[in-house]
Structure formats: C-alpha cells, structure tokens
Amino acid sequence: xxxxxxxxAVTALPAGAATLAGAGLLGxxxxxxxxxxxxxxxxxxxxxxxxxxxxxxxxxxVDPRRYLTRQGRLFVRNHTSTPVIDxxxxxxxxxxxxxxxxxxxxxxxxxxxxxxxRLPRTTVLSVHECTGNGRSFFGTQQATxxxxxxxxxxxxxxxxxxxxxxxxxxxxxxxxxxxxxVQATGLDPSYVSGGVDxxxxxxPFPVSKALxxxxxxxxxxxxxxxxxxGYPLRxxxxxxxxxxxxxxxxxxxxxxxxxxxPWNTKWYRMTGPSYAADEAPLTVNPVRSAWExxxxxxxxxxxxxxxxxxxxxxxxxxxxxxxxxxxxxxxxRAELRDETRAVAATGAVRGHGWTRFSHTWDRPRxxxxxxxxxxxxxxGRRQPLTSPYNDQGYFFDAVVRHPVTVR
Length: 407
Ligand SMILES: Nc1nc2c(c(=O)[nH]1)N[C@H]1C(S)=C(S)[C@@H](COP(=O)(O)O)O[C@H]1N2
Ligand SMILES: [Mo]
Fold this sequence. Notes:
Blueprint lengths: L3 E2 L2 H4 L5 H6 L8 H5 L12 E3 L3 E4 L18 E2 L6 E2 L6 E4 L13 E3 L1 H5 L4 E8 L6 H5 L15 E10 H8 L7 E6 L5 E2 L2 E2 L4 E5 H6 L2 E6 L2 E2 L9 E3 L12 E7 L6 H4 L21 E5 L5 E3 L5 E9 L4 E7 L7 E2 L1 E2 L3 H5 L5 E3 L2 E7 L5 E11 L24 E5 L1
Parallel strand pairs: 6-17, 8-24, 19-27
Antiparallel strand pairs: 1-5, 2-3, 3-4, 6-7, 8-9, 9-14, 10-13, 10-17, 11-12, 14-15, 14-16, 18-20, 20-25, 21-22, 21-26, 23-25, 26-27
GO biological process, one term: sulfur compound metabolic process
InterPro entries: Ig_E-set, MoCF_OxRdtse_dimer, Mopterin_OxRdtase_euk, OxRdtase_Mopterin-bd_dom, OxRdtase_Mopterin-bd_sf, TAT_signal
GO molecular function: heme binding; molybdenum ion binding; molybdopterin cofactor binding; sulfite oxidase activity
C-alpha cells in the first residue's frame, strides 16, 4: 500500500518497532511502545485518559455550552495505530457478487476522493460511541470486572458527519436486488492478538442498514477528518456500535451471501455463561448518561449548584432524564436542553445526537454524596440499575453511581 505511510517520527524508531507495537508484542509500558504514536493528535491529561492505543474523553473537560464534540476532544479507539494516508492517491475499492455487475476483489471498481465529491452530499448527526464504553463499572460497581480497555464513560461523542450516503453511491454503481451484506475494511495495519493475525479491521453489515442511513464521511463538524478519526474517509453507521464505523476505509465488498469477520463473530457480540452460542452481532447502542464532572468532584457547601450532563441512545432521541442526589432514594426530573428541534438547528439534517440535561442542587449538606442519572429514550428504553455481565464487557448501560464531596 504505497499511499499509506507513517509520520516521520515513526521512521526514527528502530526497524521493526512499529510492526511489533502494531502486533501487540510490546507492552504498553515498554519504552518503545510509549515512543510509538498509536494516536497522532495530542491527548493532554486534562482532556483525555490515555490507554495507549485508545484514549477517552474526560467528562469534567466537557464544555456545557458546546453541543458537538470537536475532533480534538473525541475519544480514539484504535486496534493498532493511526495510518497517515495521502488523499490524492487513495482509492476506495468496491467489489463483490452483490454488485449489479459482479466483480472479483482482484478487479474492483475504484473511486477517488474526487469521484465521491461529485455525489450528492449529506450531513448526519450521530452519537459516536464504543461498544465497551462504561466497561470499568462492571468491576467498580458490580464487582465482576471484565477484561479490555477500562473506559469510564468517555468513549462517546456527538458528531455532525459530512459525506455521501452509501445509498447514493450504490444507486450510482448499481447493486443486485438480492444483495444482502456489505463488508467494510480499513487500511490500518492487521490486528494481531494472542499470536493470531486476524487481518485488517473489518466488519460486515446488512444492505438494509446501508440503504437506510449509512454515510461515507470525509468530514466532521465542518472540518476534514483528522487522521485518528479515519482520514480521508470513514464509514458511519449512525446509532450502531462504534466498531461498525470503519475508519480509513479501503474497500467495500457487496455480497449476495451473508459475510462475516471476527469483528462480528468473535468480538462485538455477547458471550458468557448467560448467553447463547449464536447471539447476533451487536448493532444499536443502548441508553446511557454521564455527568460533566470528575468522579469524586468537590463542590462548595452553602450554595446552589447547577449540575449538568448528557444522555444518549443509539436508537432514538432522549425523552426523559431522572436524577438523584441521594444515591437513588429519591428521584427528580432533570431539565432537558436539546429537544429534537434544537438539535436540527445545529444544521444537521438527519440522525440524532445526545441531549444535555441539568439539575439545580440547592445548598447540599457537607459530606459524601452519590449522584445518579437515569435516561429514557423516545422508544421507551430506560437505563437499568444493573447491567447483565458478559465476558467482553460490552454495553454497560446501567445507571452509574457518581461520587462527589461537598465541603
Ligand atoms: N479501520 C478501523 N476502524 C475502526 C477501528 C479500528 O481500529 N480500525 N476501531 C473501531 C472502534 S472499536 C471504534 S469504537 C471506533 C472509534 O472511532 P474513533 O477512534 O474515531 O473515535 O472506530 C471503529 N473503526
Ligand atoms: Mo469500539
């Protein structure tokens, strides 16, 4: 792949270091791994919690006045490392027996950046969230830790994505009436784990989702994508688990049979004692909420505090948020700031983002308190009080107990 290169800093590393880090053979704590930039944008400690190849947004750094999440603030989830891709020589390859005229992978249709820019454009607002967001609470709140990145609640953001609808591209290229599956593959290095090379990050999804609202995005909130977020082009499947939105998109296979990849058979489906062996791959994100405060935040006694936060769902806008300042004994309705109409006013034409909420806490008494927020979406889905355990720690959607101290 001549058009995929590494930043100059990387070439200064000893030969093979990049490969080793990409293969996961260097521990996160080893000096070579620390020097290897898996993420290229700055992730300062006051805005991010750094997990090496992943970084989460700190909720106490969120500006309550800003609705959208700037790319500079957005969480990053990389299986390996961010590739630097030249947009001019980059091509999207499209192939498969699901095209109106079948094409093998060895003889794909190729689309350049300019080709895509000729198609009708769209902007779609979506809550962008990792399947494992909240995973750490399986351990800290339910005493059943799950392996994987110990995200708190910062693997989420709301983004206005700009690009073309996959539906419009398919209309242009022509797809077979009985096409059922689309496989999206990234251009990042192959993912190696436990000595197994799983190949490039890729995940299939149904043609029905492609035709409903899938977007090939080149921009976020009015800017080109940053390298870390998929430049020059990423797939966006609004409302679905983050892994569905393949970054650094290199190819789309359209098929008349159901495609699979380890990212929908091995990972990103529920596994564990209470799950069947044939659980469906995870698709729509659940309902969650977070306070714009650090865990253990200190608040001044003797005054009134306006507490703010956000709630979101992959399925629908948020209809209601209930809050408790006494660890769940009593609940009140929070005020919501972003009704559907207000969200549309951000300039996005379709989709939905999160909803900001606020609650006035009048002169709380000194001492330790537990804040809780519990959201319900417009489809009637409500956050539970506990999340059923699964081996990979996906979908922690329970109400989070947020400690604060008043003094
Ligand atoms: N090519 C590629 N696409 C990918 C990934 C990846 O590692 N490689 N990670 C996925 C996962 S698990 C998530 S949560 C989102 C994260 O997107 P972001 O880093 O832009 O926030 O991208 C998805 N798309
Ligand atoms: Mo993810």
